[in-house]
Amino acid sequence: xxxxxxxxxxxxxxxxxxxxxxxxxxxxxxxxxxxxxxxxxxxxxxxxxxxxxxxxxxxxxxxxxxxxxxxxxxxxxxxxxxxxxxxxxxxxxxxxxxxxxxxxxxxxxxxxxxxxxxxxxxxxxxxxxxxxxxxxxxxxxxxxxxxxxxxxxxxxxxxxxxxxxxxxxxxxxxxxxxxxxxxxxxxxxxxxxxxxxxxxxxxxxxxxxxxxxxxxxxxxxxxxxxxxxxxxxxxxxxxxxxxxxxxxxxxxxxxxxxxxxxxxxxxxxxxxxxxxxxxxxxxxxxxxxxxxxxxxxxxxxxxxxxxxxxxxxxxxxxxxxxxxxxxxxxxxxxxxxxxxxxxxxxxxxxxxxxxxxxxxxxxxxxxxxxxxxxxxxxxxxxxxxxxxxxxxxxxxxxxxxxxxxxxxxxxxxxxxxxxxxxxxxxxxxxxxxxxxxxxxxxxxxxxx
Length: 448
What we know:
Number of helices: 19
Strand content: 15-25%
Helix content: 25-40%
Number of strands: 15
Largest sheet: 7 strands, mixed
Structural class: alpha/beta
Distance between the termini: 45 Å
Oligomer: single chain
Shape: globular
Radius of gyration: 21 Å
């Protein structure tokens, strides 16, 4: 495999530019559908005037998967049915980052819309919502949201977006493959060593059968086992540490040494989601965006948080959190109408439905802990693993320079993960650390 193609593969697995997988990921990288392909882009209808007596709101919504499309269609049709004075015109796309950038530059942005991880890059364009949240406190019920999620939807102390929910990277596992291998199922308190042992029991590369895959849907989430990549103020890189070097090395060892993960040539050809769906992978890192497709699988499965890593006598745990939120464009002439819509779409009625359908891990505690989401009649049995993972998750792409930060991490990791291995684990981690610091220094310098 060429260095270029390998880098492209690692970019798809490691880099995050506001976007990604799950229904809860943001802007630049569409998630694969249940069949392993990206949903086709659908153009928004040509702009038209609102019918007499109605206010038209252009609503940006991504179509990463068929499930995501149905989710958006339900939101639009339900809100218009309940609010006959509003005409919601969808601005469909498969790349919110690109769509919003282009329409802002062209002077034709949507009035409101959906985003995911990396929304901070647009913080100057989104309406600051703090006054509206305070004014409508009785309806918004800010105390019902997870505090970490509310923190993740602020930048420089201001709310420019309203959270719908989140997802975290965790492990989906195929119970049949575990049963066939005579291996015990992973539990909420399992370890990295357990993962290696289980993966070894399941893997049979000659039969195109693999134990564990962390790439797609995980991005660099396992690296958060070593903690955040920067300090709380995003001024100092914290990427380099002995533990992070260790994790980077272990990640490559999964396919290069342990032989329990599929090599890059195989995943590039077959795709990780299709491989899991076909029963070829025992454990697969993904998020809530895989819930609805997984519920259609014929084999039995469940989920657990990413494993604990014991290092230097201590246990370490972490994963990535992807926020899902709604915004109002600061220049919209319909701020009140757009805010009322965003308030409803992040509110109890919509989130109860979305949680029951598996579209989102709801950001409201009361709904996340209710039967709408924790329904014992629906898979997975351990759906609470999403909430447990949130306790130690770290929000991803929570900086306006998220794309540059992703490149700073992805390029050296690509060099290490490549067959040529032009950097070792220590050098790759140090290079990423230095690159992150350069991006942060440049961003703050630009702020004057």
